[in-house]
Amino acid sequence: MGAANSFIKGLVCSKCKKTYREDEENHLCTCGAPLLVEYDLKQAAKKVTRETFSGRPASLWRYRELLPVKDEDNIVTLGEGFTPLLPLRKAGERLGLSNLYIKDEGVIPTGTFKARGAAVGISKAKELGVRTIAMPTNGNAGAAWSLYSARAGIRAVIVMPEGAPEITRNECLAAGADIYLVKGLISDCGKIVGRSLAKNGWYDASTLKEPYRIEGKKTMGLEIAEQFNWELPDVILYPTGGGVGIIGICKALRELQEIGLIGEKLPRLVAVQAEGCAPIVKAFEAGKRESEFFPDSKTVAFGINVPKALGDFLVLDAIFETDGRAIGVSDEEILSGWRELVSTEGVYPCPEGAALYAAVKKLKKDGWILPQEKVVMLNTGTGLKYPNVFSGEFPYLNLEAVL
Question: Is the pTM of this model over 0.90?
Answer without folding.
Answer: yes
